[in-house]
C-alpha cells in the first residue's frame, strides 16, 4: 500500500475581490505519496499554485480539509504553519528569490542557520553541482545556476517535501534540463516527495504521476508506466 504524505478532501479556495468571487479551487480530492514525483499540469488560472500554496502551508483553504501525514493543516495557526514549513517543506519558485548581496553559500546558510537538522550549505551546493561556485554572487551566475542555488537552499534543511512552482519557467531548454536532472536526482537520492507545477507538457514524461487541473478541479490523474530521463525531454 502506498504511503500517503498529503491528503486533501473537497478543498475549495475562494478569493473575493469586491463583489466578485473567484473559485480558485472548487473541490479538490487528492493524495500524494511518499517519494513520488508528481507533475501538476493545467491551463493558467486552473488552481495549481493555489493548491501548492495550501499544501506548503503558505495559505489556508476556504473549506475542506488538508492532512500532512497525520497532521491536520486545515485549521493550523499561522505560527504552527510556519513551523511546519520550516521543518518539512522546501519551496522552489520560477524566480529564484536569492538575496543579491549574499554569495551562494550565504544564501543557503540563511536556511541552514534556522533549521533543526540541516546538511552543511556546502553539501547542499555540491548536491546541485555547484561545489565550485559557492562564493559566487547571484549576479555572477546564469539563471540555471541561480535556480540550482535556490534548490540547494530548499533541500539543505532535508525537507520531506519539495514543492516547485514553474522551476524551469524562466530557463532555456538546456539549463531547464539541468535543473530537472537536479530535481530528479534529489527525488531518487533522498526520497523527497516532489511536486512540480509546469506549463511545459513535455515535463510530465519524467513524473511518476501526472495530475491535470481544469477550472479549480482535478480533471485527470495518470500514472506513467515508463518515465523519461530529463535529458530525453525536448522542448
Ligand atoms: N490572491 C489572489 N486574489 C484573488 N484571486 C486570486 C489570488 N490568487 C489566485 N487568484 C485567482 O485564482 C485562480 C487560480 O489561480 P492559480 O494561481 O492557482 O492558478 P494556476 O493554475 O497556478 O495558474 P498559472 O499557471 O497561471 O500560475 C485564478 O483565477 C487567479 O486569478
From TrEMBL:
Family stated for the protein in its record: Belongs to the ABC transporter superfamily. Macrolide exporter (TC 3.A.1.122) family.
| Protein's recorded name | Putative ABC transport system ATP-binding protein
Membrane in keyword set: yes
Q: Which keywords does this Swiss-Prot/TrEMBL entry list?
A: ATP-binding, Cell inner membrane, Cell membrane, Membrane, Nucleotide-binding, Transport
Q: Can you give the residue ranges of the ABC transporter domain?
A: 6-233
What is the organism field in this record? Yoonia maricola
Q: A GO CC term?
A: membrane protein complex
Q: Which SMART domains does this chain map to? A: AAA
**Family matches, as Pfam families:** ABC_tran
| Transcription regulation listed as a keyword | no
Which domain of life does this protein belong to?
Bacteria
Q: Which PROSITE patterns match?
A: ABC_TRANSPORTER_1, ABC_TRANSPORTER_2
Q: Cite the GO molecular-function annotations of the record.
A: ATP binding; ATP hydrolysis activity; transmembrane transporter activity
Amino acid at each position: 500500500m502506498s504511503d500517503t504524505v498529503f491528503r486533501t478532501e473537497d478543498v475549495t479556495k475562494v478569493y473575493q475581490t469586491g463583489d466578485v468571487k473567484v473559485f480558485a479551487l472548487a473541490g479538490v480530492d487528492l493524495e500524494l505519496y511518499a517519494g513520488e514525483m508528481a507533475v501538476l499540469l493545467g491551463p493558467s488560472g486552473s488552481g495549481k499554485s493555489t493548491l501548492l500554496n495550501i499544501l506548503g502551508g503558505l495559505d489556508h483553504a476556504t473549506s475542506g480539509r488538508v492532512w500532512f501525514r497525520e497532521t491536520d493543516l486545515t485549521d493550523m495557526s499561522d505560527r504552527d504553519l510556519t513551523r511546519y514549513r520550516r521543518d518539512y517543506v522546501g519551496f522552489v519558485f520560477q524566480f529564484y528569490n536569492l538575496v543579491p548581496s549574499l554569495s551562494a553559500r550565504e544564501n543557503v546558510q540563511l536556511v541552514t542557520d534556522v533549521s533543526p537538522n540541516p546538511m552543511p550549505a556546502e553539501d547542499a551546493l555540491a548536491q546541485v553541482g555547484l561545489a565550485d561556485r559557492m562564493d559566487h554572487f547571484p549576479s555572477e551566475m546564469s539563471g540555471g545556476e541561480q535556480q540550482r542555488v535556490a534548490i540547494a537552499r530548499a533541500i539543505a534543511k532535508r525537507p520531506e517535501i519539495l514543492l516547485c512552482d514553474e522551476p524551469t519557467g524562466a530557463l532555456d531548454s538546456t539549463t531547464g534540463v539541468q535543473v530537472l536532472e537536479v530535481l530528479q536526482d534529489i527525488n531518487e537520492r533522498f526520497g523527497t516527495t516532489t511536486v512540480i507545477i509546469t506549463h511545459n507538457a513535455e515535463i510530465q514524461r519524467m513524473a511518476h504521476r501526472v495530475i491535470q487541473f481544469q477550472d479549480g478541479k482535478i480533471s485527470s490523474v495518470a500514472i506513467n508506466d515508463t518515465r523519461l530521463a530529463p535529458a530525453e525531454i525536448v522542448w
